[in-house]
Design a protein that fits this description.
Strand content: 25-35%
Structural class: alpha/beta
Distance between the termini: 10 Å
Helix content: 25-40%
Bound molecules: zinc ion
Number of strands: 18
Shape: globular
């Protein structure tokens, strides 16, 4: 089969590889669409330590069933499917508590941090355990379905956030996850969603997808503006989708006393925390990792049109063009949101 292999850091190549073998609980999927994730782009240069070559990356994918392992009886060749990026074990302390995203033996498709190597979906075929697979409704295209993973991350963050009907929510960062989160928090009951991002193009997308107000922190004092929009108090909740000191401090300063900040962004390993502000204003900080059972909700909300992903797709290209798209994303070419490859 054809696969895009990270041969060494900074070197991607479409090569011929053997079809992956499947175990009794696995399904072989013919990949029809696979999105390039920011984490894949970051993995390119070895900075994250989570994509040790040689590796086929890619974990945001959809396709059709080709072949099922002996224990898989409820899927047939030709079924349209997508799958979670997290391969959980189903047996550890956390899995049995229903916290599969916190699994002790968690592996991620298309990731190799050293202890394991699990080839991903930038390939014609990928082997996936049945327990992480979901059927696709007919009205979702494979390309749209490749964004279910990102949408599920936004829904999970909102599910961990104590938002109630009528709240004002702030979403810091209007990248892929931020734009999914804006839509999810609106459907969770936020009456107003204020989006923050230094890129006006992204703010325009945010408005299109349901943000009621937008602030460019390069042009205006974000905290003062949020306060002026909320009778001087601040928002009830903030969801931070960048993951660095400045945006996290902004998120904390944007919520009112007793408010909650959910941390989704994960870039800087450490940040400076305004401890006194968090303690004396009794702010709740909540980390949010990947998703835990939100795939069906993501599929339902996308299928019904409540959450839209079409405006987030910047380009759809054949797998052969993958290396050059990675290069453009690595160089931060402006205006690019989600690029989807078709193996
Ligand atoms: Zn991803
Ligand atoms: Zn587990």
């Amino acid at each position: 089969m054809q696969a895009m292999l990270l041969k060494e850091y900074m070197h991607l190549e479409v090569v011929e590889m053997p079809e992956p073998p499947i175990g009794p609980d696995d399904v072989l999927v013919r990949v029809r669409a696979c999105g390039i994730c920011g984490s894949d782009v970051h993995g390119l240069d070895g900075r994250t330590g989570r994509r040790i070559p040689p590796l086929v990356m890619g974990h945001e994918a959809a396709g059709e069933v080709v072949r099922c392992g002996a224990n898989v009886t409820d899927l047939r060749p030709g079924d349209r499917v997508t799958f979670d990026s997290t391969v959980y074990c189903g047996r550890c302390f956390f899995c049995t508590r229903g916290e599969v995203n916190l699994c002790d033996n968690r592996e991620v498709l298309g990731v190799s941090p050293g202890p394991y190597r699990r080839h991903g979906a930038f390939a014609e075929y990928v082997a996936v355990p049945r327990r992480i697979m979901y059927r696709l409704p007919d009205n979702l295209t494979y390309e749209q379905a490749a964004l279910i993973e990102a949408v599920s991350v936004g829904i999970h963050a909102v599910n961990l956030t104590p938002v109630v009907l009528g709240d004002v929510a702030v979403v810091v960062g209007a990248g892929m996850i931020g734009l999914a989160t804006i839509q999810a928090v609106k459907h969770a009951g936020a009456s107003r969603v204020i989006a923050l991002d230094p890129d006006d193009g992204r703010l325009e997308l945010a408005r299109k997808l349901g943000a009621t107000e937008t602030i460019n922190p390069k042009k205006a004092d974000a905290v003062e503006t949020v306060k002026s929009m909320t009778e001087g108090r601040g928002a009830a909740v903030a969801l931070e989708c960048v993951g660095a000191t400045d945006p996290i401090q902004t998120a904390i300063a944007c919520v009112r006393k007793g408010g909650a900040v959910t941390l989704v962004g994960n870039v800087a390993p450490e940040i400076t925390l305004p401890l006194q502000s968090v303690v004396t204003r009794q702010i709740r900080l909540q980390g949010s990792c990947a998703s835990n059972g939100e795939y069906p909700a993501a599929i339902e909300l996308m299928s019904s049109g409540a959450i839209q992903v079409e405006p987030l797709i910047s380009a759809i290209a054949p797998l052969q063009e993958g290396p050059s798209w990675f290069d453009r994303l690595y160089r931060h070419e402006p205006g690019l949101m989600k690029v989807i490859l078709r193996p």
